[in-house]
Amino acid sequence: MVVGEIGKPDLAALSDMAMLTTTNGMERDLAEFDALFAASGWRRSKTYPVGNGYFGLELVAV
Asked: How do the domains of the chain map onto residue ranges?
């Protein structure tokens, strides 16, 4: 899931809270995904919704 805009609660935000309280995990917004990808030698080339708050993220090696 990709977390949306701050102040606009959605399923991803609720999932993020559940992950933080039960597993120490977290959902990420697109900027956080981009930073993670850049740190590992990748760049996001395409983003598209696949349903139920989930997104497909296509990456290319840099």
From this structure: 11-61
Rounded Cα distance, 13 and 3, in Å: 6
Residue 18 CA to residue 13 CA, distance in Å, equals 9
- How confident is the model over 31-45, as a mean pLDDT? 96
Angle at the Cα of 10 from the Cα atoms of 8 and 12, rounded to 5 degrees:
120
Pure H helices in the chain: 11-22, 30-39
Which pLDDT does position 10 carry in this prediction? 81
Contact of 2 with 30, CB cutoff 8 Å? yes
Contact status, residue 57 vs residue 44, Cβ threshold 8 Å: yes
pLDDT band at 9 (very low <50, low <70, confident <90, very high): confident
